[in-house]
Amino acid sequence: MDYEYMSIDAILAENQKMTCIFKTKIPEMGHLWGGTERDIMPQSKYQVPVWMAYFAVYSGWADFVIPTPFGARVRNALDAEARSVRLSNLVGAGGLWYGFGKLIMEMVDDEQGEAMSAMLTTTFRQRLIELVDQAQHFAALGPSSAGGGGSGDLAQSFREGLDGTERELFVLAQESARRTKKWYEETDSGRR
Length: 192
Fold this sequence. Notes:
Elements: H1 8-14, E1 17-22, E2 45-49, H2 50-58, E3 62-64, H3 72-81, H4 87-90, H5 97-107, H6 110-141, H7 152-160, H8 164-186, H9 188-191
Antiparallel strand pairs: 1-2, 1-3
């Protein structure tokens, strides 16, 4: 995995759960999921954290099901209008949809991985323009006048649905716009 060992984002992304379907009997491990069964039986489904799913899948003990946040329903919604999808609601723990998607992408075969990579990249590109536009708009308004107008509901809905990565970019874009405005006002060209 390419994440840094102590990265909070990596820890949160790996803490997501995914469904694994076990292929073999694993003795004395049924207690891991809080059940009363002693063993994990073939064809049984369990929700396991991603870090445990790696081990189970790569050991050949289980297969996994593509998680709901990356399923056909979400793909169709993203294809229709990526900006209308609330990515933060699709995954818990800080809403790191892109990070979770990268982890899943590394676990699937090449064809599925390329399709998922294309979906993540396309979604990011489609949402980035709106993200930067809103960040610059709110930076120009300042903290006291950040109220919304008629289209504010759509803008607010978009901001509330930002993924954790997008939130970081939003803050950076706002700060960049503020600094640019301040620089422009303080230079000679800004006073003319």
